[in-house]
Amino acid sequence: MADLQALTGAIERGDRKTAAEVTRAAIDEGMDPATVLAAMTEAMDIVGARFQRNEIYVPEMLISARAMKESVAILEPLLVDSGIRPQFTAVIGTVKGDLHDIGKNLVAMMWKGANIEVIDLGANVAPEDFVAKAREHDAKLVGVSALLTTTMVGMKDVVDGIRAAGLTDCRVIVGGAPVTAEFASQIGADGYAPDAATAVEAAKRLAGIA
Ligand code: B1M
Fold it and tell me: Which of 50, 100, 105 to mutate to test the pocket of ligand 1 (most atoms within 8 A of CB)?
């Protein structure tokens, strides 16, 4: 049986080869992708805690993040279904000033798997770019991710920008580790989700199809 502890350890060390091998083995054995993903996410929590204790620094975090991204890419086909017509379009990105994109990528993947057409703007996205892309693609939903307490405040600029542009059919959903439902409501966002799975339900509800 694929050793998920080894997967967590490999991502923590930034050992991409072992992480990919264990991920492939887990998939071949038919393991639940959510369980495999949980083992990867656990590694990032450990890495974050070690960073906070000054045991590791940004380069080590980066190496772990790269290992996680490669392993998530192996899982992607299982998380994303294909061949079914998208129900609506969503734009997603990480807020300006913020380079964290692993959680945002997971939300994008889950949305794609739920037949939502996803326009992924990447990380460090300016509010005006969210607005322009939402307009260009007639998006029903804009998703904004933030991982830093210093950048999450910038989410309000996205909400305000969408409102000021008169995109009345477009809803804004926010998420990311420091973001809470209270904060979402304070900045006038239409929705909040604590994780990628919940983000699917919330997206459909906000788009009026669930
Ligand atoms: Co940074 N970092 N980092 N980092 N980093 C954190 C976030 C931190 C908590 C670490 C720590 O101190 N314990 C801390 C933030 C402290 C704070 O603000 N309170 C921190 C810091 C301080 C920094 C720097 C400032 C460090 C420095 O330079 N001194 C710097 C900032 C750079 C910048 O952005 N301008 C920095 C840099 C980096 C790297 C570039 C090295 C790398 C990111 C690489 C990348 O993403 N491509 C990195 C990493 C890897 C982390 C940790 C270790 C892991 C983040 C992660 O990927 N988690 C992180 C510690 C931690 O989170 N435990 C940390 C796994 C991911 C699956 O979870 O992103 O939370 P998450 O996503 C979840 C949910 O939050 C939710 O669903 C996802 C899946 O369930 N979700 C949404 C996310 N977005 C959503 C959107 C939605 C809905 C749900 O709707 C739209």
Answer: 100
pLDDT in tens, the chain (210 residues): 889 999 999 999 999 999 999 999 999 999 998 899 999 999 999 999 999 999 999 999 999 989 999 999 999 888 876 455 678 999 999 999 999 999 999 999 889 878 899 999 999 999 999 999 999 999 999 999 999 999 999 999 999 999 999 999 999 999 999 999 999 999 999 999 999 989 999 999 999 876
Pocket test for ligand 1, best of 41, 58, 61 (most atoms within 8 A of CB): 61
67 and 116 in a single domain? The answer is no
pTM for the full predicted model: 0.93
The enclosing domain of 93 has a CATH number of 3.40.50.280
For residues 11 and 44, the answer to whether their CB atoms sit within 8 Å is: yes
> How many domains are there within the chain?
2
Tell me the backbone φ, ψ of residue 107, rounded to 5 degrees. -60, -45
